[in-house]
Design brief:
Elements: H1 9-12, H2 37-45, H3 57-71, H4 87-100, H5 107-121, H6 123-130
Length: about 130
Amino acid sequence: MKSDDSTSPINAVNSDNTVNSTSPANTDNLFGNEQTATEATAVTDTTEPPKQQRIGKQQRKSDYADFKATYLTPSKLEKRHPVNIEDSVWEKLERIARILGDRDTTVGSYINAILSEHLELYADDIEIWRKL
C-alpha cells in the first residue's frame, strides 16, 4: 500500500504557472523576488496544513478573468491628480498592467481600481475612525 504524502510540503505546493508568462520556462515570478512563490508556499505549508492542495486550470482562468475585470479594465480618468509612489512599487504595477492587462490598460487605471475598491471596503471603518 502506498503511503499518503499529502502533508509533504513539496506535494502540497500549488502550481506557479501564470497565464501570460514572461519566460518560456516560468522560472521567474512577476515581481522578480529572490524567493519564489513556490518557496514561500513551501515555508508556510510546514506551519499550517493547506486548505486546498490544488487549484485547477479552469479555476485559475476564472480567477484571472475576475481579477482582470475588476482591476485591469481600461478606463478614462477624468480630473486626474499626480501621486508620488516609490519607483519599485511603480515598476511592479506597470509590469502587472502591461503583462496581464489589455492594450489600453494603464498604471493609473489599475491604481484607480485598487483604491476605489479599498475605499468601498473600508468606508464604514473610515467613518468610525473619523469620529474617534
